[in-house]
DNA sequence: TACTTTTATGTAGTTAACTACATAACTTAT
DNA sequence: ATAAGTTATGTAGTTAACTACATAAAAGTA
């Protein structure tokens, strides 16, 4: 069956992007399940961020990874529940809650890094011979400068 | 604040793809709202598909646009509720339900097409000077041949 | 014809993101 | 020192996708 999204031209861009991302994430979940690791896609971002930066507050994480803060709360709560994060109220500013990797997380890291490195190589393979990452960076930048809404409305007004 | 996703190498690919797609979709919603049109992002796929092909069943649509059938049901139910689709039981095969554009949809189409064409031009602008669509097609193909899970597990096994 | 398998649709429950709002704690300015 | 504004976190509700299961109809087969 021919994929209709291919016939939508550039307007199909968003849909195809989402479809591809969703498929990759679903497959990532299956992978972790198959490997018997109680981890979810996305968690590696928090692991790597906190490993590099040490303890961080919810808002800092949110800004750093470009995700709305309630999403970060939901994500890190799950990681806490799984025992991978510690949470401490900041002494200087009692509003802030500082998150950090737990001992369990540090113990698990070597095995997880192995998986993530394999994942990295897998993606590198899939993207081989393309400049995908460069293009992705460029497009992220262009759409952050001027979003889809603004671009479309600008084009609409050119007509009238 | 520096975007940490950029520091994740190819492993950040999925996350960035999803983040970009989500942002574009959210912005699309805001756009329709601002334009005062009671349409949602994604609906244009159904509009254009049914306009080209005429009435289609749920499963046909699902296969054609690469979306799970319950998602198609949810999507088209909303469009029905908004009055853009008609639904008729198939006489030859009473399991099938045939969906088609309603009169209201056909009336609305010219205005919608104007918006979608502007959107198309907006995206073309944003992607200017890149071979994004070609690369996207290539990557879709590669990941459909061999998914993220399979690629990662293959890489993992190379080590041992 | 009757049994089995396949297909089409539908429903329920899960997920991960979002926005909008609420509240508490800090900071700034009068 | 108090009021006003800002910031950090949390909660509630919405969304759009998914998988897994349920059921009814059609098709194939013994």
From TrEMBL, chains A, B:
Recorded coiled-coil stretches: none
One function term, GO molecular function aspect: DNA binding
Record keywords: DNA-binding
Domain HTH marR-type: 33-135
Pfam families linked: MarR
Alphabetized InterPro entries for the sequence: HTH_MarR-typ, WH-like_DNA-bd_sf, WH_DNA-bd_sf
Lineage: superkingdom: Bacteria
Name of the protein: DNA-binding MarR family transcriptional regulator
Organism lineage string: Bacteria, Pseudomonadati, Bacteroidota, Cytophagia, Cytophagales
């Amino acid at each position: 069956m021919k994929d209709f999204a291919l016939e939508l031209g550039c307007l199909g861009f968003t849909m195809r992007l989402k479809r591809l991302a969703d498929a990759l994430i679903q497959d990532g979940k299956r992978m972790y399940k198959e490997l018997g690791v109680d981890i979810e896609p996305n968690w590696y971002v928090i692991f790597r961020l906190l490993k590099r930066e040490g303890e961080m507050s919810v808002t800092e994480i949110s800004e750093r990874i470009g995700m709305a803060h309630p999403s970060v709360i939901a994500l890190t709560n799950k990681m806490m529940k799984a025992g991978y994060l510690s949470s401490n109220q900041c002494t200087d500013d009692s509003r802030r809650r500082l998150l950090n990797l737990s001992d369990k997380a540090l113990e698990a890291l070597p095995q997880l890094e192995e998986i993530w490195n394999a994942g990295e190589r897998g993606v590198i393979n899939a993207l081989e011979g393309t400049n995908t990452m460069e293009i992705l960076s460029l497009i992220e930048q262009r759409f952050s400068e001027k979003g889809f809404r603004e671009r479309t409305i600008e084009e609409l007004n050119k007509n009238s």
